[in-house]
Design brief:
Shape: globular
Helix content: 25-40%
Low-confidence stretches: none
Structural class: alpha+beta
Distance between the termini: 35 Å
Order of helices and strands: HEEEEHEEHHE
Number of strands: 7
Strand content: 35-45%
Mean pLDDT: 87
Length: 162
């Protein structure tokens, strides 16, 4: 179902891909948008137990795209060091593939708390006050990760001894 990476020597092991997803601050969610055009949007996120969580408004391009097609990918770049004298960039990135759904009212609180705890460390009371302010208009998305792949620059790939 998912393609094998063409440049296998640059492929990252799954545990390193998951580390990139765990440690990243933001990524780009890619969806199938209106008229068959791709729609890619940068977002911050939280990864919890094989699921990615995003927050958004209750209406808009992202929500319309998800209602039309739940399949998505989410790309996180953990390193991108330009090396001008080599005309290249030393990079590492991971892409998660899966399906996104709009979370129901009864389940979005826990996802919002996990999301907030990832970025803000001011205690539960402050977190809860902030979530309460926006809760009525808050929409939480959950992406179940079905497949993950990652790649690094060939210059960062350990060389085999010959």
């Amino acid at each position: 179902m998912f393609r094998e990476m063409r440049r296998k020597k640059q492929a990252l092991p799954e545990e390193q891909c998951r580390r990139i997803l765990e440690e990243g601050e933001y990524g780009v969610l890619a969806l199938l948008g209106e008229g068959g055009y791709p729609y890619a949007v940068p977002l911050n996120y939280a990864l919890c137990g094989g699921k990615l969580y995003f927050h958004c408004a209750r209406e808009g391009h992202k929500i319309d795209a998800i209602r039309g097609c739940k399949k998505a990918s989410f790309c996180v770049v953990s390193r991108a060091d330009a090396v001008p004298e080599e005309y290249t960039t030393y990079f590492e990135s991971a892409i998660a593939f899966g399906q996104v759904r709009i979370m129901g009212e009864g389940e979005k609180r826990a996802a919002a708390e996990a999301f907030a705890d990832r970025f803000v460390h001011l205690g539960d009371a402050a977190r809860d006050r902030e979530i309460d302010k926006f809760f009525p208009s808050l929409c939480m998305l959950e992406m179940t990760v079905e497949h993950v792949t990652g790649k690094r620059a060939i210059e960062l790939t350990p060389r085999e001894d010959t």
